[in-house]
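Hello,

Following up on my earlier ticket. Below are the two sequence lines again, exactly as submitted.
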Amino acid sequence: MTVREMQAAFDMQIQLISESLAIEEKPDSFTILYFLNTAQDKYLKDVYLSKGRMQDNIEFIQQRSDVLRNLIVRRTMMSPDSPIAISATEVD
Amino acid sequence: MSLDLPEDFLYYLQSFSKATNSLAGVSTPSWTPNRLVDHAEIDNITNALFNKPILRKPCVLFEEGDKAILYKDIDTDIFNISYIYLRKPKRLTLENPPAETYTNECELDPYLHPDIVEIAVKLFIEDYKYKFARSAQPQQA
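Thanks for your patience. The regenerated structure is below:
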């Protein structure tokens, strides 16, 4: 679904809920985008990051990695000689 | 060792260290999974009564503000760290994406898009009801 299609779906649902709301308080594109972006974040937080223990959240996300595949990223940090080096300190 | 997490970082999933360990006789750097630890274990992995602590695997601890710390023992040398994480979804926009962090298409699985719209509508209605209730309150002189 493109953002424009999501915006249209949002408008349609508002119209179904209340005719007057759709006419008098019709949200502009900026407002709809704000709520769509907030909804994305809320969905991830409520469904995937709300299990309490960090390990439980991780297992839950890994079991559903096919759904979140676009958001799962692997990064490698190079050795200290590399431009994106990390500084190492030993545990005393 | 502090891990610099990227700006789009949302949640840690897994990490690995390419390391050698002189105690275990691993002289060629090899990948090993890091162990996720919580604050209750910190004392055990950083202090030992008489000796230096021995860690079978490097340990990752997350602190508030998405700060990650990697602990290793004195016998371990880490060369590379690879980590897998869940990133923040790109911001939705109707215009041409002004930056890499914006998109014209929701990145979540397509079957979830109607759910996202539904949540957005609910949030809007809640906000609208709140505004309506406030405007309906009688003004005090």
